[in-house]
Amino acid sequence: MEPLPQHDADREAAERLHGLFQAFRGAFFGLRVCLENTLQTGYTRGLTYDDAQLLLHLSLHPGCTLQVLADAQKRTEPSVSRKVAQLVKTGWIVRTPDERDGRFVRLYNSEKAERAVTEMAGKAALVFRELQTQASDLEIREVGRILQAIENLARNVKLRPRDGSLFD
């Protein structure tokens, strides 16, 4: 018996999605290697990927609270709190009481952290310039648009327990 056309279309869609995941995995691996190389030189020696993300956010948003930092990183407040405590202890982050409301603590990068962020930004710019030699600005923007669409889709996907279908 011949498979139903819908089954062929489903299989083709699944194969295309798998190919897309493979491409993203390869791209993410390449970006991660670039970042890891950046984090193991100069001022940034010893920082993890998560550390770098926190320091970059604090560089762009100095004085934010722990809750704001956790929300921006899409992580729980307790996990970010533990990481911030570690970075305070090692001299990367400075905690300062809020001048208007003593219940809040503001977070800032130390001078050492700002030097590291500057170094990371310089190396990231080199990587991005290399990317621009291999892809046009239009292609780079299109990839960004597609990734955003996939992220939006992922936020809305829900599996129904009984029938296994997507979307409510």
UniProtKB/TrEMBL annotation:
Record's keyword annotation contains Cell membrane: no
Keyword rRNA-binding set for record: no
Keyword tags: DNA-binding, Transcription, Transcription regulation
GO terms, molecular function: DNA binding; DNA-binding transcription factor activity
Pfam families: MarR_2
Domain HTH marR-type: 10-152
Matches recorded under InterPro entries: HTH_MarR-typ, MarR/SlyA-like, Tscrpt_reg_MarR-type_CS, WH-like_DNA-bd_sf, WH_DNA-bd_sf
Taxonomy, superkingdom: Bacteria
Single GO biological process annotation from the record: response to stress
Protein known as: HTH marR-type domain-containing protein
Species of origin: Candidatus [Bacteroides] periocalifornicus
Taxonomic lineage of the native organism: Bacteria, Pseudomonadati, Bacteroidota
